[in-house]
Design brief:
Elements (H helix, E strand, L loop, with lengths): L2 H12 L3 H13 L1 H13 L2 H9 L1 H7 L1 H23 L17 H13 L2 H10 L11 H29 L1 H6 L1 H23 L4
Protein name: Threonine/homoserine/homoserine lactone efflux protein
Membrane topology: Multi-pass membrane protein
Organism: Rhizobium aquaticum
């Protein structure tokens, strides 16, 4: 892959979004190991979108307003649910734990996957992103798109893991100060609500 691809992918992955926000919140509330689990879950949530782009299903999604809007509304509802759980959480609750399901590995991965899976803009993004760096007429176009997709996923996992570990590094300060945990809960809740609003306004 070209240097241009790596730089562009790095900028896209590093830009804070719902996945990064969730990983950071998990690091703050559940520690380093579970923040890595969250990063892994967010990475898995990308797989269906990349598969859709590789198989052409993203083009179908782009051409079907109903399919796009259904997936979008599901994503908005889930982000709003996460936001509500954080905003109304108890003062002593650590970030994200009240947003639906606790800190088990399964619940963390499930939430992380859903956060990325229920975002139709990701499929459209990959439909437009990958072909820019790979000629459609190249004999090895499919293999190169798969390589680019796996590279993007690896970068996502590594950067999100770094975000989560950095957040986990200040976790003790949150645990020892319930008022800080409350403030962080509200902040993350409002951030998820803002992202739900942004997704609700998204167009194909």
């Amino acid at each position: 892959m070209s240097l241009e691809f790596y730089l562009t992918a790095l900028i896209v992955v590093a830009t804070p979004g719902t996945g990064a926000l969730y990983t950071i919140a998990t690091g703050l509330s559940a520690g380093p190991r579970r923040s890595i689990i969250a990063a892994f879950g967010c990475t898995l949530g990308i797989v269906p979108h990349m598969a859709a782009a590789l198989t052409g299903l993203a083009a179908v999604l782009h051409g079907s307003p109903m399919a796009f809007n259904i997936l979008k509304l599901l994503g908005v509802a889930y982000l709003a649910y996460m936001a509500y759980g954080l905003i109304v959480s108890k003062p002593t609750t650590s970030p994200i734990s009240e947003a639906g399901g606790g800190h088990t590995g399964t619940s963390i991965v499930t939430r992380a996957i859903l956060i990325n899976l229920l975002n139709p803009k990701l499929s459209l993004f990959f439909l437009a992103f990958l072909p820019q760096f790979i000629g459609a007429t190249a004999p090895d176009a499919l293999a190169r798109m798969i390589e680019a997709s796996l590279t993007f996923m690896a970068m996502t996992f590594i950067l999100f893991g770094i975000y989560g570990l950095c957040a986990a590094g200040i976790r003790q300060h949150v645990i020892n100060h319930p008022q800080i945990a409350t403030w962080i809960n509200r902040t993350f809740g409002l951030a998820f609500l803002a992202m739900a609003t942004k997704l609700a306004m998204a167009q194909r």
